[in-house]
Amino acid sequence: MSIAVPVALAASIGNLLQGWDAALISVAVLFIKKEFHLESAIEGLIVAMSFIGATLITTCSGGLADFLGRRPMLIISSVVYFISSLLMLWSPSVYMLLLARLLDGFGIGLAVTLVPLYISEMAPPDIRGLLNTLPQFTGIIGMFLSYSFAFGMSLTNSPSWRLMLGVLSFPSHLFCVNYILPA
């Protein structure tokens, strides 16, 4: 049990990012719509694009993890999250934002698929069930934090959707701790 709990917590940061993103896009899209003067279909596509990416990558994430390993795939997930958050922060156009959201979905799909698998494989049997609740718990924490952040931003004179989505780069940087997780 000595190292299993901190390792599970570190791996679960990916689910925190998923919760943050899933909740925050519902607020950020209100400001994205104003800036880009979007029609409803494109607005919906911006929201759905990360789920499309997650669905696509999830179909092959198990096979990729078998081929490359769980830890390398978690590292790839953290890098993809980081890049996508920077692209969302920078996005000069709707097309770049759609690409960033697709990449974000790839990071999400890898994390939500592989984190529970990784935890199950490294956790001692007597606490495996307990540790496998961490990804769901951290996902809910991510949602709570993102709604709190969005509320705080809505109290400012000019809330920035770029900052709302780009701030994902900080916890995704923490998710890079997967570089030091045991294989």
Describe the structure.
This protein has 183 residues and is mainly α. It is built from nine helices and no strands. Helix 3 runs antiparallel to helix 4 and helix 4 runs antiparallel to helix 9. The longest helix has 29 residues. The chain is globular. It starts with a helix and ends in an 8-residue tail after the last helix. The model has no long low-confidence stretch (mean pLDDT 91).
* Oligomeric assembly: single chain
What are the segments in which pLDDT stays under 50 over at least 5 consecutive residues?
none
Cα Rg: 16 Å
Q: How many strands in all?
A: 0
End-to-end distance: 16 Å
Main sheet properties: none
Share of helix, binned: over 70%
Give the overall silhouette.
globular
Share of residues in strands: under 5%
The SSE order reads HHHHHHHHH
Can you give keywords for this protein?
mainly alpha; 9 helices
Topology:
Layout: H1 4-11, H2 13-36, H3 40-68, H4 70-90, H5 94-122, H6 128-131, H7 134-154, H8 161-166, H9 169-175
Helix pairs in contact: 1-5, 2-5, 2-7, 2-9, 3-4, 3-5, 4-5, 4-9
